[in-house]
Amino acid sequence: MKVPGKQLTVVSFNTRGIPVTGSRLAMRYAAIGAELEAGDADVVCFQEIFTYWHLRLLARRMRSFRHVSYLPSVAAPAGGLVTFSRLPVSAPVYRGFGIPPRAPGISGLTRLQAWMKGALVVRLRGPGLCVVNTHPVANRDGDWSEQNRFYAVHRAQLDALTRAVRAVPAPVVVCGDFNIARDSSLFGRFVASAGLADAFEGRCPATFRAEYLPAGATPHCIDFILTSAGVRAESATALFTGKVPLPGGPGYLSDHLGLCATLLFSAGRPDGKAPDGRLPAGRPGGGAPGAVR
Prior knowledge:
This protein is α+β, with helices and mostly antiparallel strands. The protein has helices at about 25-40, 50-60, 110-115, 150-165, 185-195, and strands at about 5-15, 45, 65-70, 80-85, 90-95, 120-125, 130-135, 170-175, 195-200, 225, 230-240, 260-265, 285. Helix 1 (about 25-40) packs parallel to helix 2 and helix 4 runs parallel beside helix 5 (about 185-195). It starts with 6 loop residues before the first strand and ends in a 9-residue tail after the last strand.
C-alpha cells in the first residue's frame, strides 16, 4: 500500500514516435495508453511525442491522468516530451539545451536536432517532488568514448541537464532516454555532478532492443530513472519487455523497454517552489487538465 505524500510510482518510456507510417503507431499507442491506464503509476514521462496526434492517441486512453504537461510548439510538444500525472501539478517549465558546440563529423542537421532537445520540469503540487523528463540527442555510432564525434555534443547537453536539475528544489527524480550507455564515462560524470543515483542500482537490462540495431551491435541500457538525495527506490522493474497482441500480429510497443520505479521520499515545499520561493528560469509549459482530450 502506498503512503500518501511519501511514495510515488514513476514510469519512463520512449514511445518510438517515428516512423509515423509503417510502424503501427496508432495501434501501439492505444496499447501503451490502455496498459498504463490499467496500472498504478502516478506519473508517466514520455519521450518522442512528435505531433499533437501522438499526444491525443495517448490522452484518449489515459483518462485518469488528468494533468498533462508539455511546452506547446508549432507542430508538437517541445522536445517530444510530455509528462502525464494522476496528481495535481504546478508550474511546468521547459529548459532547452541550446546549440551544441561544433565538432568534427557532426552535421548541421544533427546540431539542429540537438538544439531542439531539452528537459521538462514538473512539480507535483501535493508531495512537492520535482519530476524532470528528458531526451538528449541520439548517438548513432554506439560509441561513447571521448574520441567519438558525439562526445562533445553529449557532454554539452548533459552539462545543461545538470544545471536544470540543480535549479529545481529537492527532492527530484530525473527520467528519460538519455542516449548514453550506463557504463560510459559520460553517465558516471553526469550522475556525480548532478548528485543523482540510479533507481535500478546498475541492474537494469539493456533498454534499447537488439532487434532495432545493426547486425552484431551490442544493446545497452540508455534509459534511466535517477533520484536525488531524499529519494530512494523501493522497487524498480522494466516494462513492455515482450511482444504484445496487436492488429496484424504480435509486436513490440517500442524499440525501447519502459522503466518503472516506486520511490520513497521526503516531501518538499507544498508550493513546489525553490527554497527562496522563486521558480527556476525557463519557458512555462502547459498543464491544464483535459487540454488534449
